[in-house]
Amino acid sequence: GLGVLPRPMAALGAYRCIECNEEATELYRDYQRGVLRISICKSCQKPVDKYIEYDPVIILINAVLCKAQAYRHILFNTKINIHGKLCVFCLLCEAYLRWLQLQDSSQNTDPDDLIRYAKEWDFYRMFGIASLEQTSFFIGIFITLWWMTPEMLKRKSDFILLLKALLLSTYGKLLLIPAVIWEHDYTPLCLAFIKMFVLISNSQAIRVTLNLNRILPWLAIFFGLILENGVVCLFQKMGWDV
């Protein structure tokens, strides 16, 4: 049934059809006494958002499968304010994995307080490095998209929406948790699969947010990766373990 629903009415352009991406003024109409009717898109003649009557678990599964309709539902037709918290949590997961790898490579088992203090600061350093790498990755994406499609990013709200979409699409980094807990001797191949899944999610988020073809988002991600790897090389030249 219709669980937690968004507002039934909104200004023009507040909602989007999940099938054709056209603007819509409402997702459903409330006829009172529990009678609700899902709005039909005037462009494609399909329900504006069929997901408003889906269970959240089904929506999550469709998002994991990188379906454009699920992404449009989440980005345009719902109110989600966990972007910042999700980003910080994902960075903490990545920092912990790097810190764990750093400790595994260290043979020092001295329980001295100074050693424990140094290890704690190693974790903070890894968090800072992971944050800078992700920031440079996003900057590379924004620069590429702004250069190739300036008409898509004219307003501040366009940048904010794309940033939120990118932050939400990094949820795949949460897979680092079971990779660490359930597989002590995790392989680089496992981490590579997680990285690829995150990049695919990023690509779909860009494509849905700006209504682009499949090529341009991947081009933006490619330049984002170049800038990110440039930051990694800079840290390595400084003698830092990343």
UniProtKB/TrEMBL annotation:
InterPro entries: Arv1. One of its GO terms (biological process) is sterol metabolic process. Mediator of sterol homeostasis involved in sterol uptake, trafficking and distribution into membranes. Keywords: Endoplasmic reticulum, Lipid metabolism, Lipid transport, Membrane, Transmembrane, Transmembrane helix, Transport. The keyword Endoplasmic reticulum applies. It is a multi-pass membrane protein. It is found in: Endoplasmic reticulum membrane. This is Protein ARV. The lineage of its organism: Eukaryota, Metazoa, Chordata, Craniata, Vertebrata. Its main location: endoplasmic reticulum. It comes from Pycnonotus jocosus (Red-whiskered bulbul). The keyword Transmembrane applies. The chain crosses the membrane at residues 126-147, 159-182, 215-235.
